[in-house]
User: Fold this.
Amino acid sequence: MKYTEFEIISKYFQRHQRKNSNEIQKGIGDDSALIKILDNNVLAISTDTLVEGTHFLKNIAPKDLAYKTVAVNISDLAAMGAYPKWTTLSITMPTSNSVWLKEFSDSFFDTLNKYNIKLIGGDTNRGPLSITLSIYGTLEEKTALLRSSANIGDLIYVTGHLGESAAGLFLLQKKIFLKDLKIRNYLIKKHLHPIPRIYEGINLKNIASAAIDISDGLIADLNHILNNSQCGANINLNKLPISSILKENFKKKYYLDWALNIGEDYELCFTISKKNIPKLDIMFKKFLINCTCIGYITPLEQGFHLFYNEKEIFLKKRGFNHF
Ligand code: TPS
Assistant:
C-alpha cells in the first residue's frame, strides 16, 4: 500500500489527543501549531526538514542551503501571520568540514539577523546531510490566519509569481536548458532564495479569511484550505500569475504544470471576503508586490474545478508527493 505524505499524517499521526486549556488548534493540520502563552498571545511553532537528494542537490553551496532552510521555515509562520522570533537547529552531516561549517553558519546567522530571529538550541549529529529547523513565533490569538476559515464567496488570491522555482530546480537538475545566462541565474535564484512573505502574512491577518504557503504546488496547497474549510473552488487558470520570463522562454504546458504541481514558490495563497478588497489594494501598494485573484470559494458540494479558456481542465497529478 502506497500513501501520500498527507495520507500518512491523517492515518497514523492525527490521533485524538486530550487538549490542554492553553492549546488552540484542534489537530496538527495547519502551517504552525498554536499554543496560548500570555493573555491573548499565542506561540506559533513550525518545523521543516531538508534532506540531501530530496530537498536539495548534493552540490548545493552551504550558504544557499542555510538561507533556504531558514526561509522555508519562516514561510510557514508567514502563512499564519506570526512574527518569527526563535529557532532550534538540528543538523546531521557526514563530516565536520570547517570550510563548509563556516560558510553555512555565516549565512545561517545573516538570515536569522535579517529577520531578528535568535538561535536558542538544537542538536548536531553525524550521518547523511539533513537539516531540521523549528521556528517559534508569536501572534495575537484572534488574528491567526488558519487554513480552516475560508468562506463561500471569498476570492482566492496568490502573491508574486508561480512556477519560477520549479524552472530553477529543473535547470539545476539539467532537465531543461537555457542559453541566456542572466535568465538562467535569475530562475536558479528563485529556487535557492525564495523570499518568505512574512510582512505580507502579518498584514494579511486582519484582512484575509484563510491562508497557506505554497510549498507543494498551488493545487495541493489550495486543496488543504478547501479540505480544512469544507469548501469547493473554481479557479481560472488564465489568471495564474506566470512571469513573462517563463512565458517567453518555455512552453505553456510546462509552465502551467510547474505553477500548479511542483511548488517551492513559497508565495502565499489566501482567501478574502469581497468587502476587504479595498484594504488589500492599499496593503499591496505598500509592499509593491503583485497579488492576483485566481478564483473564488464555492460550496463543498460543488467541488474543486479548474478552467482554462472557459473549458474545464482535469489534471492527472495534483502537487508534489514525497512517496
Ligand atoms: C533534489 N521538492 C522537494 S520537496 C518539495 C519539492 C517541490 C515540496 C516541499 O517539500 N529534488 C531535489 N530538490 C528539490 N527541491 C525537489 C526535488 C523538489 P516539503 O513538503 O517537505 O516541505
The radius of gyration is 19 Å. The mean pLDDT is 92. Residues 48, 53-57, 169, 215-216, 262-264, 320 surround thiamin phosphate (CB under 6 Å).
